[in-house]
Amino acid sequence: MIDINFIKENVEETKILFKKRGCNVDVDAFLKLHFELNSKKSELDKLRFEQKKANIEKAKEIKEKVLNLKSTVNTLEQKRNEIWLTLPNILAEDTPEGKDDTENVEIKRCGTFPDFNFSPQSHDVIGKNLGILDLERGAKVSGSGFYYILGQGSKIAMAVYFLAWKILNENGFSFMIPPVFTDIRAFLGTGYFPFEPKGNYKIENKNLYAIGTSEQSILAFHDNEILKFEDLPLKYASLTPCFRTEDGSYGKCSKGGFRVHQFHKMEQIIFCKPEESEKLHEACLSNIEELMKILEIPYRIVRVCTGDMGAPGYKKYDVESWFPSFNGFRETHSNTNLWDFQTRRLNIRVQHNGEKFFPHTISSTMATDRLIFSLMENFQKSDGTIDLPISVKNLLERNFIF
Q1: What is residue 102's predicted lDDT score, i.e. its pLDDT?
Q2: Coil, strand or helix: which one is 380?
Q3: Are residues 344 and 209 in the same domain?
Q4: Where are the beta strands (DSSP E) in 287-327?
Q5: What is the model's pLDDT at position 32?
Q6: Structural domain harbouring 63
Q7: Is 311 inside a domain boundary?
Q8: What is the 8-class DSSP label of residue 96?
Q9: Inter-axis angle of helices 369-378 and 151-170, nearest 10
């Protein structure tokens, strides 16, 4: 969550920030509530101090006042925290302003577009014809928004994820297999709730939600813990299935394997010192670019604007892969510096020289199923087959043995 001290010291700037981010909270009213809470807490501390020093009769009299004031403090704190949880993060100063993803700013473009002498097919058509991607049976078994990746398609998928794993392994990431269901605190702590309450599936009669990204379970791994300064940066990675309802995605591209309810994703997660987060944010982007170049997929990088930035984000890049059937780029990666927004919500601190501070976090996609779909489209041939890039072909021929 946003640091209240920042709000107190930058009231007018905060009002401008919240307006940019579509947050309608009354900043003055929020601060008034916060100051009232602090005042009542001070009164409570004084009463408790008097209670300890008082005689028996006086202590009994003060006890009643303590109980009443404690109830007032609890009520005020609950109201303050309910509002606090809805406040968005601060933004990097150079964040482009814009209303939605159409106003994200392209900063880099790499790779060569395939030059077809035929009309390129979409990945779902290619996959169906080759028997490696089946959306129809996915819909038959689970409803729309699910698919099977079959046979050679599953081998291609594993090759892509293996190449992504290799890059992260060489860059010091520790892999884990986290739970794919977490309680509500993980969603509140990472900032997905209360901002996107309808985006995730809830298990009936349980306080459990299916993750939409392993960020939710990996960040919560250190919930309410004190980390060692010398252990930073902590660099984690995982490959998990992810689940999203896609409520609110009306009008967005849902062709083929886009906007589905289940997919796979490899994630980069970093806990770091505040002074290192900018550098490590760029390092995560470099990892993505290395993979894209190995896969020979044309891509571009965009800076995400204010209107497309999720509430927890401080600074964000999207990497978009080329899809010939769209004759355009589509998002395959998001890479976000979240500052100390998540660690404040999860109460994750670092001990150093007798003091504690909140570390920064970075959450970055490394690979998703969409990369497999992009490969299928970019390397398709006129006869409907796929001529894979040498990096993937070598892995398949050698059964992943170097």
Answers
A1: 94
A2: strand
A3: yes
A4: 299-303, 315-323
A5: 97
A6: 4-84
A7: yes
A8: P
A9: 120
> Strands 360-368 and 349-352, how do they pair?
unpaired
How are the residues of the chain apportioned to helix, strand and coil, as percentages rounded to the nearest 5?
45, 20, 35
Residues 123 and 386: beta-carbon distance below 8 Å:
no
Gap between the Cα atoms of 128 and 135, Å rounded = 8
The strand pairing partners of 226, in sequence order, are 349
Q: Which of 85-89, 209-213, 394-398 has the lowest mean pLDDT?
A: 394-398
Tokens of 322: 């080329």
The whole-angstrom separation of Cα 39 and Cα 336 is: 37
Question: Cα–Cα distance between 2 and 14 in angstroms, integer?
Answer: 10
What single letter denotes the amino acid at residue 269? Answer: I
How many other CB atoms are there within 10 angstroms of residue 384's CB atom?
12
Can you tell me whether residue 95 is helix, strand or coil?
Answer: coil
Nearest to 337 by CA among 271, 281, 275, 279: 281
Instruction: Judge if pTM exceeds 0.90.
Output: yes
CATH of the domain at 30: 1.10.287
C-alpha span between 202 and 211 (Å, rounded): 10
For the chain, the maximum distance between any two Cα atoms, rounded to a whole number of angstroms, is: 95
Q: Are 193 and 304 within one domain? A: yes
Kindly report the backbone phi and psi dihedral angles of residue 365, in degrees, each rounded to the nearest multiple of 5, phi listed first.
-65, 140
Of 233, 228, 244, the C-alpha closest to 277 is 233
- 156-178 average pLDDT score: 97
